[in-house]
């Protein structure tokens, strides 16, 4: 079975092709035969298309950024044309899976895409304006190129759909509940995959584990998982809630928003400030990239820089030193806030679970920042959590970084959202086949 996965973002489009044989899924994620990505932020008027195959062929080129649907069409064509060709014809693709960010309260599981589902995805764009329209564009581009091939929507909110009302409903007017204003949670595909992979790595039934998964990338969220179900999460009605992120503020006092609106801040400006100009970027003034923020901290501080400049008798040197020092100070503050909020939120998830068996770190920061993992874990030594600092520093993939005598198993897991989407396609196809056999 050939399964194509499309993972559309607001500024990028990723895709990969899996080829599965037999009637059983492999224990570990297989290497895709083909992978491609479009970056629409490459440069004005142009998008960057990158393609690679399992056999080693690579393509990197620029395409027009004016028409996203045409860009997706160009991306798909590299499957059956040119140096990156891996299939003979479009009809070789059996099924296509899409990551869809918001499924609302209606879609609590992956589903076959129909006209009704497409309409719901469009309607839910009001709750995910940066993502659901892009997801729908991908679906329609597939219809234009591949016709009636089967398509599946895998919702990022679905894993959180069983969260108890006490955790999901905001304490505002009850009318909010009737309007669908509640905690939906996001990154669900990643959280669910990491839950299953953690149980697999520990060789324990997922139903016996209390797990906190920490998805720490440019977007950040936690999930509290018990008996294989999510019971709490940090993102809420939108992906803006919860942890401090790359450019998003995370949770703030709603009174701040009212204050800014009364001061004349427009809704558009407020949206920009909260989503694009906050988080690591907003506090540090350096970057939304954790690596660059940490590099700024490593530089000389304001005191030493200003002192060195003054001792040299160089006015510019002192000025430059003060500027570098202020940058380092702001970068340090950003890290301090990031860790404080991460620890506080892990503590909140811990309280929801009533204990903890497994702590998982995943996504860009979670998988690659040993410092963030160590800083987060340090606060929970009182539980008996003991980190193996040597193993942690090695940034291992899909391995334990806690000591043998730690009361909490700490894992670094490489999240495989695309593979999780492919598995859902395979599952729905298998179920459909079983029903067809039964009907026959």
Written account of the structure:
This protein has 440 residues and is an alpha/beta fold. It folds into two domains: 2-155, Nucleotidyltransferase, domain 5 (2-Layer Sandwich); 205-417, Nucleotidyltransferase, domain 5 (2-Layer Sandwich), CATH 3.30.420.40. Helix content is 42%, strand content 19%. The chain has 16 helices and 14 strands. It has helices at 68-77, 115-123, 132-146, 165-168, 175-178, 188-202, 254-262, 267-276, 279-284, 290-298, 302-311, 315-353, 363-368, 370-378, 389-393, 417-439; strands at residues 2-8, 12-19, 34-43, 46-53, 58-64, 95-100, 111-112, 150-155, 210-216, 220-226, 229-233, 358-362, 399-400, 409-412. The protein has an eight-stranded mixed β-sheet with strand order 5-4-3-2-1-6-8-7, sandwiched between helices. The chain has a six-stranded mixed β-sheet with strand order 11-10-9-12-14-13, sandwiched between helices. The radius of gyration is 23 Å and the shape is globular. The two termini are 22 Å apart. The model is unreliable at 309-313 and 435-440 (pLDDT under 50).
């Amino acid at each position: 079975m050939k399964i194509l996965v499309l993972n559309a973002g607001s500024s990028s489009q990723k895709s990969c092709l899996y080829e599965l044989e037999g009637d059983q899924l492999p224990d570990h994620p297989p290497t895709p035969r083909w992978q491609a990505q479009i970056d629409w932020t490459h440069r004005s008027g142009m998008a960057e298309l990158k393609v690679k195959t399992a056999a080693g062929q690579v393509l990197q080129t620029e395409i027009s950024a004016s028409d996203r649907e045409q860009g997706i069409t160009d991306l798909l064509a590299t499957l059956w044309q040119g140096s990156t060709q891996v299939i003979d014809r479009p009809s070789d693709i059996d099924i296509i899976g899409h990551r869809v960010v918001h499924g609302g309260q209606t879609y609590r599981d992956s589903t076959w895409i129909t006209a009704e589902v497409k309409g719901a995805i469009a309607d839910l764009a009001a709750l995910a304006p940066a993502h659901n329209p892009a997801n729908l564009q991908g679906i329609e581009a597939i219809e234009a190129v591949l016709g009636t091939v089967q398509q599946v929507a895998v919702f990022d909110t679905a894993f959180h759909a069983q969260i108890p009302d006490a955790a999901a409903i905001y304490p505002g007017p009850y009318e909010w509940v009737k309007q669908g204003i509640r905690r939906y949670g996001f990154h669900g595909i990643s959280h669910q995959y990491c839950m299953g992979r953690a149980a697999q790595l520990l060789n324990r039934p997922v139903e016996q584990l209390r797990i906190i998964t920490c998805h720490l990338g440019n977007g950040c969220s936690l999930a509290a998982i018990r008996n294989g179900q999510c019971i709490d999460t940090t993102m809420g009605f939108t992906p803006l809630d919860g942890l401090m992120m790359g450019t998003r503020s995370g949770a703030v006092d709603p009174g701040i928003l009212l204050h800014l609106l009364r001061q004349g801040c427009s809704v558009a400006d407020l949206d920009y400030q909260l989503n694009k100009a906050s988080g690591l970027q907003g506090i540090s003034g350096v970057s939304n990239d954790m690596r660059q923020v940490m590099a700024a901290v490593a530089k000389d501080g304001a005191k030493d820089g200003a002192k060195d400049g003054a001792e040299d008798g160089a006015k510019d040197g002192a000025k430059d030193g003060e500027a570098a020092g202020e940058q380092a100070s702001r970068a340090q503050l950003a890290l301090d806030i990031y860790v404080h909020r991460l620890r506080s939120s892990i503590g909140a998830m811990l309280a929801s679970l009533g204990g903890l068996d497994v702590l998982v770190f995943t996504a860009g920061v979670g998988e690659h920042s040993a410092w963030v993992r160590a800083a987060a874990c340090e606060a929970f030594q009182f539980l008996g959590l003991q980190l193996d600092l040597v193993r942690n520093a090695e940034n291992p993939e899909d391995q334990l970084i806690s000591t043998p005598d730690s009361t909490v198993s700490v894992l670094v897991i490489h999240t495989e959202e695309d593979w999780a989407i492919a598995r859902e396609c395979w599952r729905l196809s298998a179920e459909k086949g079983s029903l067809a056999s039964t009907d026959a």
